[in-house]
């Protein structure tokens, strides 16, 4: 892997010599039996270097590759990638052979239904092809968890919106899906609207 892909200064490299970052925490979703051979996880931003967070991008991507990751859904904006000091993240994924699905959603916002449906269709395609897949935003709590909750609704008619949200909070902690605009979206049951839109599209209903 080319060192130029990782935006680390000499100072950062020296700083990292004396420390060993903890493994990147991956939260694997409990998928329904029909997808028992598929794997989908939510995580925070690999390589993030912001405030007290000092991750190592190369090590994080190596971990994702070593666990068999084939696809990654990046929900951060390009401005966020610059702010969190991983401006070349997408290029780094691609150089490692990981397929990138970049859908930038501003922090604190929820995607519109059309974008959400597109993301869910691509996620489902990855799962049906048994491609181990990762979703991440910045903290892996808001946007990523919202998309994951919508996917759980799409994959099982037995799951309610609140059950999907609770499932993500069990995996990622009580702060999952707590951002104001995202919370409003879920409380207004727009999450069900997204699910119904996807379900209708699958049946060929317009």
TrEMBL record:
<protein>
    <recommendedName>
        <fullName>Cyclin-dependent kinase inhibitor 3</fullName>
        <ecNumber>3.1.3.16</ecNumber>
        <ecNumber>3.1.3.48</ecNumber>
    </recommendedName>
</protein>
<dbReference type="InterPro" id="IPR022778">
    <property type="entry name" value="CDKN3"/>
</dbReference>
<dbReference type="GO" id="GO:0048471">
    <property type="term" value="C:perinuclear region of cytoplasm"/>
</dbReference>
<comment type="similarity">
    <text>Belongs to the protein-tyrosine phosphatase family.</text>
</comment>
<keyword id="KW-0963">Cytoplasm</keyword>
<keyword id="KW-0131">Cell cycle</keyword>
<dbReference type="Pfam" id="PF05706">
    <property type="entry name" value="CDKN3"/>
</dbReference>
<comment type="subunit">
    <text>Interacts with cyclin-dependent kinases such as CDK1, CDK2 and CDK3. Does not interact with CDK4. Interacts (via C-terminus) with phosphorylated CDK2 (via C-terminal helix). Interacts with MS4A3 (via C-terminus); the interaction enhances CDKN3 enzymatic activity.</text>
</comment>
<dbReference type="InterPro" id="IPR029021">
    <property type="entry name" value="Prot-tyrosine_phosphatase-like"/>
</dbReference>
<dbReference type="InterPro" id="IPR050561">
    <property type="entry name" value="PTP"/>
</dbReference>
<dbReference type="GO" id="GO:0004725">
    <property type="term" value="F:protein tyrosine phosphatase activity"/>
</dbReference>
<dbReference type="InterPro" id="IPR008425">
    <property type="entry name" value="CDK_inhib_3"/>
</dbReference>
<comment type="function">
    <text>May play a role in cell cycle regulation. Dual specificity phosphatase active toward substrates containing either phosphotyrosine or phosphoserine residues.</text>
</comment>
<keyword id="KW-0904">Protein phosphatase</keyword>
<feature type="compositionally biased region" description="Acidic residues">
    <location>
        <begin position="8"/>
        <end position="20"/>
    </location>
</feature>
<feature type="region of interest" description="Disordered">
    <location>
        <begin position="1"/>
        <end position="23"/>
    </location>
</feature>
<feature type="domain" description="Tyrosine specific protein phosphatases">
    <location>
        <begin position="117"/>
        <end position="172"/>
    </location>
</feature>
<keyword id="KW-0378">Hydrolase</keyword>
<dbReference type="GO" id="GO:0004722">
    <property type="term" value="F:protein serine/threonine phosphatase activity"/>
</dbReference>
<dbReference type="InterPro" id="IPR000387">
    <property type="entry name" value="Tyr_Pase_dom"/>
</dbReference>
<feature type="active site" description="Phosphocysteine intermediate">
    <location>
        <position position="137"/>
    </location>
</feature>
